[in-house]
Design brief:
By secondary structure, the chain is α/β, with parallel strands linked by helices. It contains 11 helices and 8 strands.
């Protein structure tokens, strides 16, 4: 085993001494702490699975296509597991979770009212660009903490069906939970300007087929590893033992003339299937 791999495996067994803050959440603070702990825990099994790389049966190839960015992904996943201090705006800061309340714009110096953004976009949470702030909208508490399974029963009950090499149905039963909602924002927080967003090119995508379609080649900057929803789906596939996956190297993902062999933008709107995902883009 290579030393970098050993480093990430050891991280799974080290005490989790997270450096984060929760602000403006009042009586909701214990529930927010619980959701954060669940988000951290979603990384444990994927950090073990990722050692297999493209030999994984739980979606690594569908989401990431190659082993070339494994160290990058391991570092990101370890950060989400341990929530260390990170750099934003040129200085080290603690990740901070803030319940969106009226009139807190000046306190956080972000140029807009977080609650207004919640109302206008309908998101459940969002990361404030160039900060370590994750704002939790009032609707965040309407999400269940995590998937529910019958004790001793199968874990793949929410897994997708694949037909004609695409995922069918809605991804909500698989990932629409507080735990994965936080993973989404924490991926943005630790990637900072490296992450795909609605302002980058390619843009952030959230539909699972569009995630499969994202390019991976170093020449492109590895968009699949910088798209937070790719991490969400991979973690959910591992945690829920999903094994039915599209092959990203054949149609409809393979595009003639595309050097990466994929639809690099991740935009699958021109393909033969209809996206039925109800998730909202939250960044």
């Amino acid at each position: 085993m290579k030393l970098p791999q050993l480093h990430y495996l050891l991280a799974l067994f080290l005490p989790i001494a997270s450096a984060y803050k929760i602000e403006s959440c009042d009586n909701s603070k214990p529930a927010i702490e619980y959701a954060i702990t669940l988000a951290q825990a979603t990384m444990i099994r994927p950090l073990l699975d990722i050692q297999r790389g493209v030999l994984s049966v739980n979606g690594y190839t569908a989401m990431y296509k190659s082993n070339i960015f494994m160290p990058f992904l391991q570092h990101l996943m370890t950060n989400i597991l341990h929530l260390p201090i990170t750099q934003a705006a040129g200085r080290d800061q603690e990740p901070t979770f803030v319940c969106a309340k009226p009139n807190i714009r000046q306190k956080y110096d972000i140029g807009y009212e977080p609650l207004d953004r919640c109302t206008e976009t309908g998101v459940t949470s969002f990361w404030a660009k160039d900060t370590v702030l994750v704002f939790l909208c009032p609707s965040f508490t309407t999400l269940a903490f995590q998937p529910v399974f019958t004790p001793g029963g199968p874990r793949d009950i929410y897994c997708p069906v694949v037909q004609e090499n695409v995922f069918l149905g809605q991804s909500d039963p698989l990932v629409k939970y507080q735990s994965y909602d936080l993973v989404h924002q924490l991926a943005h927080l630790y990637l900072q300007r490296e992450s795909l967003t609605s302002e980058t090119e390619p843009k952030e995508v959230m539909d699972w087929n569009s995630c499969v379609a994202l390019g991976w080649a170093p020449l492109e900057g590895g968009p699949s590893v910088k798209n937070p929803f790719n991490l969400i789906y991979y973690a959910a596939f591992v945690n829920q033992e999903c094994t039915q996956m599209p092959d990203p190297f054949i149609a409809p993902f393979l595009v003639q003339g595309d050097q990466a062999g994929l639809i690099s933008s991740g935009n699958m709107t021109g393909t033969s299937f209809t996206n039925s995902t109800n998730l909202r883009l939250q960044s």
